[in-house]
Amino acid sequence: MEEDNWTQTQQRSLPVNSRALLLVNRHARQGEKRLIEATYYLEKLGFKLTEESTENPKHLSDIIRRYQHKVDLVIVGGGDGTLNAAVDGLVETQLPLGILPLGTANDLARTLAIPNSLAEACQIIAYGELRRVDLGWVNGKHFFNVASMGLSVKITQKLTKEMKRRWGIFAYIATALQVIWESRPFSAEIKMKDQSFRVKTVQIAVGNGRYYGGGMAVVHDATIDDQRLDLYSLEIEHWWQIIPLLPAMRQGRHIRWRSVRALQGQKFEISTRKPRPINTDGEITTYTPATFQVIPKAITVLVPPI
């Protein structure tokens, strides 16, 4: 097991012996084998743990609701999809969230500067800062990172759990390259306030946090508490035009390119000729027509102290 590299003399945000509901996605890339390790660290740090798991992540919010008066916080171990499955329960109960990054991409953890080291992530849950963060909302579904349509949906549809477990982040890269090669533009209308834009695009992404898709940035300066949504539309005609954009997309600086439309706001409406699936934090959860909004300071998360 990793050595703790924080001293335990730091001031705790949560009381000693806090009661924690520990939810781990055993199907996450590192879920099953890291559960014993996480339990060891958290109990050593003084948490009184109640462990629950489910074969279906969609039940996580129901489990959180069931324990809302019996625990002081919820600790979720898994990737972005697992966190997304738990978000509605967190909003309703307003229990603080601790994150153990056990998935493939861990984009929310990256946005919040939570390291992949399990020992350090546990220390942040014990000694970190309680921070209110925004959530995105689309058609009744909350999301942490990004909601998108187009390329990202096709990547989600092709990317199997087995591929993610076996190849990790390289599975995203290989699948993305295949999807880009097969991409075809679609028509959409984007509305914000009193403006309307008709676009032909291969990808529309609406971001609440900064990172998505295994470390790509929606916008270089986005934060998860800036009370805004960042939208980009990738308006290219041929698949090969995306290749020179890829390095800029890693840093969130693609918004400066002529073929990329970038908008900021608190609410967007997007419609398409026929319903198109929308991916929220890596899971397909709704379809167009869609209304996107930011929900400011929606939940509390334990993050590294500033």
UniProtKB/TrEMBL annotation:
One of its GO terms (biological process) is phospholipid biosynthetic process. Pfam families: DAGK_cat, YegS_C. The keyword Lipid metabolism applies. GO terms for molecular function: ATP binding; kinase activity. It comes from Nostoc cycadae WK-1. Coiled coil: none annotated. This is DAGKc domain-containing protein. It comes from the Bacteria. Residues 15-142 form the DAGKc domain. Belongs to the diacylglycerol/lipid kinase family. Signal peptide: none annotated. Keywords: ATP-binding, Kinase, Lipid biosynthesis, Lipid metabolism, Nucleotide-binding, Phospholipid biosynthesis, Phospholipid metabolism, Transferase. The keyword Lipid biosynthesis applies. Its cofactor is Mg(2+).
